[in-house]
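INTERNAL AUDIT FORM
Audit reference: QA-55
Scope: verify that the stored structure record matches its stored sequence.
Auditor: D.O.
Record contents follow.
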Amino acid sequence: MASKIYSFNKGVLEQEEGGVVNEYPLQLVVNGRELATLIASPHDLRFLVAGFLRLQGFVSQVEDFQALAICQDFGAASVTIRGELPERLKPVLTSGCGTGISFNMPKPVEKKGPSRVHSTASIFTLMNQLAQKAEGYKSHGGMHSAGVGDTELILHAEDIGRHNTIDRIAGEALLKGISLEGKILVTSGRVSTELVAKASLLGIDVIASRTSPTDMAIKMAEEAGITLVGYVRAMSFKLYTHVEGIDFRAGDGKIQGVTGVILAGGASSRMGSNKALLPHKGGRFIESIYRELCEIFPEVILVTNAPEQYQFLPCRKVPDLYEGMGALAGIHAGLSQSSNPAVFTVACDMPHLNPALIRHIASHRYGCDLVLPMSPQGYEPLHALYNKGCLPAMESSLKNGKRRIVSILPRVNVREISPSEVAGFDPRFDSFSNINTPQEYYDLRNADKEKAASGEPYSDAAQQKLQA
């Protein structure tokens, strides 16, 4: 089964395609009597059924089978054997890692998503603490372990059965009056539907495992609103559902995996001079924007064909790869030369950047090529996030002489941020305004002076330089 998977490694999250192990429930009917549901892999099911009945003592030779039919489409096995089944069958619940029998198929509690956002550091910390507390495994091996917590483990358990560890935690929490709502569950074992269903009943937000989930577990976690994480290692993991449940920012609050790109390629014809170099907030216009982006992103790139004019900026400067093709060429240049899989672009004359809105836009970058905010006037592509999946569409447009950014939209997967969604952060849509004429620049300067006189704070760290 091909599944959309995200790989988090050393602070960077990237989408990848991969397969997951299949989990298949098979209802077993023997002599017209429903005997059990076998949870198994979906191949060679007749061998599984025959072997199960043999090892349960119901058959001993091939002649004991009068009929054996498998309907894989409906997950059913119908078997007729010689003799009768015992009148009463006494189930023995195994460790959960062997025959995999379930007498009641689990049903999760459906919800839209995790109740809150958890940090990547919490996942790594809890998994490390679980390893340190796994005394049985360190002593003689052969044990599974699990634990729950937020930033620290509050409960943990060991058992030969991976499902038993969850039951032990659930029981201890019940008897001690500990709520597990919104917690992270870490486990050493594979994640199956039964484990997801149990976690859902406990109100768990995140399941993190050292190994893999099954395909049905992924589907159930999606429906249950649980963030599902697998293959947790020292600095990496894979993410299968509800990406929004994890905060991928570094400890300094910067958004990992995204580069801030400033576009400084305009002619400034209406201004009469290079507007990026006009005085603003104690420095030049472009310096203020650069400082804002440096507080949000770990890397900032300036796209310019005149790098000598911006030597005062301590960042990498890259040229257009398609000269004379406008803003689309600038975005293409920044994206193709970024060291990260995504870029957030702004023009060099946008004085009202809103960090909260920028972070909101960046938080929607997974599962799409372009995150495109909208104002009442329409799309705002100069204040948007582009993943590298946009590059083929950009190059096609540029090679065919198409300069408009919107020309790529039919060929990329777009996540729109509606005007109402933007208004929740920026009611006046100031983030999208730019300065094109001397009058607009003078109005901005006057507004700055009024803010300084009233004591209203600025959004960047340059407030103290305003009157320099």
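Auditor finding: record pair retrieved intact. The two ends are 62 Å apart (CA to CA).
Action required: none
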